[in-house]
Amino acid sequence: MTAMSQAQLLPRKTKILFWLGLLAFVALLLAGPWREATAPERHFSSAWLLSTLVFVTLLTRRIGFALAITSLIFGGLLIASVVKFAYLTTPLLAPDLVYFVNRDLIEVLLRYPALLALFVGGFILIPALLILAWRIDRPIFLQRFSRRTRSLIRACGSILGLLLILICASPDGPFADIYGKGMWQTMNDKSYLTDFFISFNQTKIQIPISPVGVDRSIVWNDPPKPAETHPADAVSAIPHYPDIVTILEESTFDPRMLQVCGMPLCKFKMFVPDARTRASGSLVVHTWGGGTWTSEFAALTGLSHTSFGNAGLYAPYNLAPRVTYTLPRALKAAGYKTIAVYPMSGDFINARNAYRYYGFDEFIEGSTYGLAWESSDTDLMQVFDQIYTREKKEAGKQPLFVFMLTLRQHGPHMTPLKFLKPPYNAPLFPMLDKWLNLNLGNYLSRLESSDSALAQQEKFLLDSDRQTVLLHFGDHQPSFDGAINAIKKLNAPKGASDPMFVTYYMLKSNFAPKQKYNYPVLDLSFLAGLVLDVAGVPKDEFFEANTRLRERCKGFYLDCADKRMLDSYTDFIFHTLQALHD
């Protein structure tokens, strides 16, 4: 019996499966590989699809099933990546499956109904459709050959298909140039399938390499001083350093950066310096639209996650256990008790473990105080007041360092305007469309709440008779599901490379520091050292070098105009101080 006659005898539903599978596969090629950014990426992602199709076809002898499984799995990855990019501003990457698939994923999905529907639908439908396709299809491929010949062709073909897959997966193979693509390009070029597959190679931390000819004559630390002797009672004395309170303001930036936001309604006290301000200005951050944990990492370690390649995006998992120097450790060495107040479960993004690695004495989960995604900044500040009052009573004269995160400004910013209080209950910007008015109205409404809560917090802390340093800063700009880029921004501060990566910082104290600090633009990696300076706390060898780079580069880090200086600093912290250990 010929192959043609065998095909004619197939059940109608098997034929339908084949044609539907073929249609889905062609649609996938058109929507996925053939729409990627460059020709090599189109070839790369197409090779993945075709290699998989060949391998499954020869392994199972079911052409319809092979078309179905290839289309469903790759199509599912494509759809998931497109939707994730639309809502969370980053494509689906392989490490997401390693680090982010846990019970807290559901909490995030509940915030985005479309993502939840996609996740649940895919989880149920894809296995069900594959089982159905397997039952409908028939193993007729190569049927006209003898069993021995068929087995030989299947074995050789399966090995060839598997070899092609391994070639595609090799960063040293013919697609090596694609695997060398940088993280920022990976995050933004919308080559979704290519980005997913090359990201399997992005879990390896890359320690910065010292360039040839690096200048090691530049001094980053003073020679160690001879050990001093103290009376026994002086050694055991409690140090007289101020309390330090740091507040990470979620998705917060000064809206006056937007050209449409020049009205008085866009001016908030939290961004305006006053007599208690010791330093303030624009803050250069290392992430946009999300990735708060990377800003936590930078603020607490003085390092940028971008220095470690694409794997740096997963800092709480792979960098936190290896950092040698941190702000909490420097403060503990000076006699501080260090406390983290986290507004969510400590399981989220490995926070509990990461903060232990950062050196905190105590990690307090907001969930134990009833805090959740919808909790306002005022709710959080009330919890902080309880914790701070209790800790002061227990610590006595021991100085405290409290690091706290807010949450309410987190996206989405989609509460219908009619539910907001005036004047945010109606469109405020006639030059913007309905979607942007919705998001910006929500942002300003929440910002007003943050502004009020910070004013109360400042009064609570700085009006007390206990010396205190108060720092608050924005971790990244919101994305408005990517739409914020449609609003024209004012130029980036002079020297900063991109206005998308600019927020704000405000550093105050209720006492006069030893000197004044003027950094209109400051990199997030320098905040910890600046806090130590204002508080008058001794710095370790890392933060001493960090301070010298801050001064020599006038507040800029990776954007430092003096590349010779930056290269020398990088060499010193990573290869002399071993800022990241094994």
Write up what this structure looks like:
With 582 residues, the chain is an alpha/beta fold. Helix content is 46%, strand content 8%. It contains 21 helices and eight strands. Strands 4-3-5-1-6-7-2-8 form an eight-stranded mixed beta sheet, sandwiched between helices. Helix 2 runs parallel beside helix 4 (63-88). The longest helix is centred in the last third of the chain and has 29 residues, at 434-462. The model is unreliable at 227-236 (pLDDT under 50).
Which descriptors apply to this entry?
single chain; 582 residues; alpha/beta; 21 helices
Give the terminus-to-terminus CA distance.
65 Å
Class based on secondary structure composition and strand pairing: alpha/beta
Low-confidence stretches: 227-236
**Helix count, DSSP H or I runs of 4 or more residues:** 21
The residue fraction in helices comes out at 40-55%
Give the overall shape: globular
Largest sheet strand order? 4-3-5-1-6-7-2-8
What is the residue-averaged pLDDT?
87
Largest sheet: 8 strands, mixed
What is the string of helix and strand elements? Answer: HHHHHHHHHHHHEEHHHEHEHEHEEEHHH
* Radius of gyration, CA atoms, in whole angstroms: 28 Å
Number of strands: 8
Strand content bin? 5-15%
Instruction: Determine the oligomeric state from the structure.
Output: single chain
Topology:
Layout: H1 3-8, H2 12-31, H3 39-60, H4 63-88, H5 94-99, H6 103-111, H7 113-136, H8 147-169, H9 176-179, H10 183-188, H11 192-198, H12 232-235, E1 243-249, E2 277-284, H13 292-301, H14 315-318, H15 327-333, E3 337-342, H16 351-358, E4 362-365, H17 377-395, E5 400-405, H18 434-462, E6 468-474, E7 502-509, E8 521-523, H19 527-535, H20 541-552, H21 563-576
Helix pairs in contact: 2-4, 3-4, 3-8, 4-7, 6-7, 17-18, 20-21
